[in-house]
């Protein structure tokens, strides 16, 4: 029983010393320390700071190495995809020409394209497909001349009414 009590006292004392040391490292309770103790504390802080900086540098270098490896992998994948895309483009047939596009020769000449040249035989419409609108005056476009001096005056604060309302 006595042995357990002595062990307890030793551990309690050790905990108090460590707590005091921790407070000193945190910059607390520095007033009672002598110059030599402050120098020793400063050395310990410098040594710890160097270890922290060294570890931080190592972590950053490891991350940089990983990022460079990933960059290289992405560049390789990009090159592969570009090569595949170029191969697919080379293998792809030119797009089919639509019947109204012709061969392109009509586009180069100064003469207007002929309607027959623009349509292939299979898409040609029969002659009677388009019929002139004759005989019905209601279907013919009409334009009525109007004298600008005969326009009605707008209402106060309003606009001119449309001509069809006049």
TrEMBL record:
Signal peptide: none annotated. Residues 81-120 are annotated as: Disordered. GO terms for molecular function: DNA-binding transcription factor activity. Transmembrane segments: none annotated. InterPro entries: TF_Kbox. It holds the Pfam family K-box. PROSITE patterns: K_BOX (PS51297). Residues 1-91 form the K-box domain. One of its GO terms (cellular component) is nucleus. This is K-box domain-containing protein. It comes from Arundo donax. The lineage of its organism: Eukaryota, Viridiplantae, Streptophyta, Embryophyta, Tracheophyta.
């Amino acid at each position: 029983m006595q042995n357990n009590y002595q062990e307890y006292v030793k551990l309690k004392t050790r905990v108090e010393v460590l707590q005091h040391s921790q407070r000193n490292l945190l910059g607390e309770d520095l007033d009672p320390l002598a110059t030599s103790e402050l120098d020793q504390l400063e050395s310990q802080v410098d040594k710890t700071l160097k270890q922290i900086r060294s570890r931080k540098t190592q972590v950053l270098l490891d991350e940089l190495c990983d990022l460079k490896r990933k960059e290289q992998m992405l560049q390789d994948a990009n090159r592969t995809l570009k090569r595949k895309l170029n191969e697919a483009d080379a293998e792809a047939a030119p797009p089919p020409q639509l019947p109204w596009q012709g061969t392109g020769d009509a586009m180069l000449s100064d003469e207007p394209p002929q309607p027959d040249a623009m349509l292939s035989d299979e898409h040609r419409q029969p002659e009677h497909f388009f019929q002139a609108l004759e005989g019905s005056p209601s279907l013919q476009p009409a334009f009525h001349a109007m004298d600008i001096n005969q326009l009605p005056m707008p209402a106060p604060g309003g606009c001119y009414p449309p001509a069809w309302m006049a």
